[in-house]
Structures are given as C-alpha cells and as structure tokens.
Amino acid sequence: MPEIIRKMTFSRRALFMPLNLAICAAVVPEGWDVEIIDENVTDSPHVPSTGGLDAVGIGAMTTQARRAYELADGYRALGVPVILGGIHPSAAPDEALQHATIVCKGDAESTLPAALRDLAAGRAKQIYDWRDEPDTPIASPRKDLLNPSDYLVFNPIQTTRGCPHDCTFCTTPAIFGRQFRKRSIESIVEEIRTAKENFNTRVFIFSDDDVAGDHKWAIELFEAIRPLKIKWASQCDILISRSDRLLAAMHDSGCVGVILGLESTKASTLHQAGKRYVNADQYIRQIRKIQAYGISLWGSFIFGFDSDDWRDCMDAVRFAQKTRLCMSCYPILTPYPGTRLYQQYQAEGRLLTDDWEKYNGSTVVFRPKKMMVNELRHAQMAAFHEFYLPRSAFHRLGLLPLKRNSWMANLAIYRGLAYYYSQKRRPLPRFRHFLAADANRRIARSLGLSSQVWMDT
Ligand code: B12
Ligand code: SF4
Q1: From its phi and psi, is residue 430 left (phi > 0), alpha (psi between -120 and 50) or beta?
Q2: For 327-361, how does the pLDDT look when each residue is reduced to its tens digit (9 = 90+)?
Q3: Full set of structural domains in the chain with CATH
Q4: In degrees rounded to 5, what are phi and psi of residue 261?
Q5: What is the pLDDT of residue 216?
Q6: CA distance 405 to 403
Q7: Helical (H) or strand (E) element with 320
Q8: I want to staple 112 with a disulfide (CB 3.0 to 4.6 A). Which of 108, 122, 327, 349 is the partner?
Q9: Ligand 2 and 209: CB distance under 6 A
Q10: Which ligand is nearest to the CA of 331?
C-alpha cells in the first residue's frame, strides 16, 4: 500500500463504523445483552458458534449479501435464530428468507424490537416491515460497543431517511420511501455534542442521501448546529443552489464540502435516470454558485446509461475538470434489486449475473447498449486516471489558497491507481485508447485481459 494512503487513513482498519449495527443495538429491547461484530475490523473471518446466543442479527447492503447469507446459514445450522436486515434483505426479502428465520424490511427502529419480543415469546413472524410503524423516530447509535480507533469515521450521523426523488437506479426511495423522514434536531445536536466531548471529533459526516433535501428543515438544522463550531460534509442534490439562505446556513454551520449526485451532463441520460428535477444546462451556473459560498464540491457521475457511449463518459470528466470539482467519482451503473432499473433489465434479459458481490460499481453486471462491457469498464478507469492526474488536480485545485485535504486526497487516489497498474504491469487507462487503430488490443492490455476474453465479452 503506498505510504500516502496509509497516512490518509491513519492506518485505521475500516473507513466507516457500522452505523446500522450501532442503531440496531440501540433499539434492542431491555433484557437482551448485545455484542457487535464487524468483520471489517476483525483479524480473521468470523466463525459462527453458539456461545449461548439467543439470536443473531446480520445487516447487508447488496455487495455484502453473499457473505451475510454464508454467516446466516452457519448460525442456522447451529440452531441459532437469524434475523436478516438492511438494504439488500429489504429489497429481496424472499431470497433473504431462504437463509433467515426473520427478515426485517427497512428501519430497525420500526421492526427489530417487535421481532425480538415475538421471537422470545415463540410467535415470530417471517417478515417485519417498517411501513407498519412508519413514525418510529430515528435512533441514536450505541457507540460504546465499538472501538473508535478501528475507524477513520467513527461519528457518522444520519439525519434523514427516504428521498422525495425517484431516480430509476436508486434503492433509497424503494426501501425507505419517498417521504423524507427527519430526525429530531435536538437529538442530532445532542449526538454531535456528545461526540465532541467523548471523542474530540471536530469534523462530522452526515451519512444521508440528501441532507438538505427539505430546505426549510435543513436551514433549521444548520442554524442549530452553528454554535457547536464543527466542520461537516455530506451529500446533497444540486437544488441547494436555489436558496441563498440555505447556502449561507450551510457555510456558517461549518460545511466544508458536499457530494453532488450529478450522474450525467446529458439531458437524455438524466431523463432516463429519472432525474427530472434537474437540468444539465444549468449545472455550471448552479455549481459556481455553491462554490461561491466556500463549499467544495465532489461530483458523482454514473457511467453506462443506455444513451451513453465512451465520449459521453469523457465529457463528464472534462466537465468535472472545467467546473473545478475537488473530487469526483465514476461508478458503473448498477441495477440494484428493488429498483426500477433492475426490473427493466430483468424484463429485457440484460442482467449478466446475480453474484451480488459484483454489484459494487466497478463491475459491469448488465449488457450496456452503446458500449461493450470492457469498453465501459475501461471508460470508468480512464475517467479516474485522467481526473486525478496531478496536472488535472493542479488545474482544479490550484496552489493558493492551499486546499491541503483535497490535495492529499487527490494525490492519494492518483498514487493508489499508479501503484495498482504498475504492480499489475498494465498501461494506465486513457480515453485516447478508444481512438487508436488497435483500440481493442490496447483496452484489453489495460484491463489485463487476453484478446480471447475480449472476444467473449
Ligand atoms: C455512508 C455510505 C457509504 C460509506 C460507508 C458505508 C458503510 N459501511 O456504512 C462508503 C463511502 C464507504 C460507501 C460505499 C459504498 N456504498 Co454507500 N452509502 C452510504 C450512505 C450514504 C449512508 C450509509 C449509512 O450510514 N446509513 C445509515 C444506516 C443506519 O442505514 P442502513 O444501513 O440502511 O441501516 C438501517 C436499515 O437498513 C436497517 N438495518 C441495517 N442493518 C440491519 C440489520 C438488522 C439485523 C436489522 C434488523 C436491520 C438492519 O436498520 C438500520 C437503521 O434503521 C448510504 C445511503 C443510505 N440511505 O443508507 C449509501 C448506500 C448504502 N451505498 C450504496 C452503495 C451502492 C455503495 C457502494 C457500492 C458504492 C460504490 N460504487 O463503491 C460502496 C460499497 C461499499 C462496500 N462495502 O462494498 C447504496 C447501496 C445500494 C445497495 N442496494 O446495496 C446506498 C443505499 C446508496 C444509494 N442510495 O443507493 N457507502
Ligand atoms: S439518487 Fe439521490 S436523489 Fe435520486 S432517489 Fe436516490 S437518494 Fe434520491
């Protein structure tokens, strides 16, 4: 691992603490003892054993489903009841039930207490659904069960659930609903205050899909946290640019940066993605306005929509460079179970695998329309490489005023990429490979594929 990456993560074992499990622990009814095991920070893979357990709860997003099912099967073979919850079991409850005694759909706050009580009373149902108790408040996590020094981000704070938008590729509205459910501002302030006191945390991540999706509420929240003098970052939609009052409240409360789900700079692609509430023609103006409030922007662009070819991917990178985004990411479109996109690709017979580990944003799991599978993956890697090249970082970040953290992060990503490709002895990916006379051979070399595999995909 390059030294700069070790430095960036302060040699922590994992990036984020498992907020889902800490919230589950907080809502377990009285009378139960709870232990959290996070396999991301254990020295070796967890091995199921009975050890006097009355129940085991396992959470998983889609990439983690296979491992979750393995563990669930292991515990069930020992006779321990298993409760599966989290994003993937909520999206695919029938599949999850093949490995679990109970599946909790959606929020643990609305499902887990009843599931455990019923289990203890010997009358457990197979499925508990948050929609039966939709008004249960968002809980504060139990952090006392985790080791802070294992995690780079030990105090992520979730302030909302659900999303009013309905992007075709996104799990959030499908699982957590299209209504914003907001946590009480007092409990958010209290969690921040406690984290400051107990762990000396000064920089917070609001672990939300769209922290400022309700402008009026967000202004109230940011005004309430302003006296705490923290720095924070989160995800938002670009419509925050509509409100000067909101942007001022964000800046004044310590917002250092936000991730914007821009997805594409092409109107037809945004339309396909179900992003009808944005207009690509206004992106530049909106981005400049947010930046004028001293808020750094990280763009997220998705590659592989039906109207996109490699040039559209390159255009997204050029756009991110032109608008001087401090960071940017380029995940491959992924049809997660539970989404409209999944249904569409399933109906069209375009899904290439149901190996959920591959649903990770770096693997092409569907047949794209305007690119071959390998071309799409190459476009993704060329985008990361060209965006994080030091001269691109220099153009975007400049030297003064020194954006130390952004520079560190940009250099870490670039050096990580260069290290990876040098270890694999492959040429670093470039968009210009698409134009070469022997484009297929060059792309295959960069991806580490033989030409035979290229022919097959
Ligand atoms: C912060 C974040 C990250 C962080 C940290 C993730 C982490 N380990 O916590 C980072 C940046 C690392 C990350 C990475 C990725 N992420 Co992310 N991330 C998020 C985000 C914004 C917040 C996560 C969070 O803290 N949520 C708060 C907790 C409390 O919510 P929760 O996990 O859903 O848990 C609740 C319920 O589901 C349930 N529950 C959960 N577990 C259990 C267990 C039991 C037993 C029970 C009863 C209930 C239960 O109760 C909890 C409390 O109510 C979510 C968006 C979101 N709405 O959650 C996306 C999200 C989880 N990420 C997503 C994706 C796609 C990814 C990546 C694949 C992206 C990529 N292309 O690289 C990677 C995968 C990483 C991996 N491990 O493989 C998707 C997942 C889609 C899916 N179907 O799996 C989400 C939903 C974004 C979205 N809108 O699509 N992510
Ligand atoms: S991608 Fe973002 S804006 Fe779209 S539905 Fe998901 S959370 Fe909401």
Answers
A1: beta
A2: 999 999 999 999 999 999 999 999 999 999 999 99
A3: 3-132 (3.40.50.280), 148-444 (3.80.30.20)
A4: -80, 85
A5: 97
A6: 6
A7: helix 310-322
A8: 108
A9: yes
A10: 1
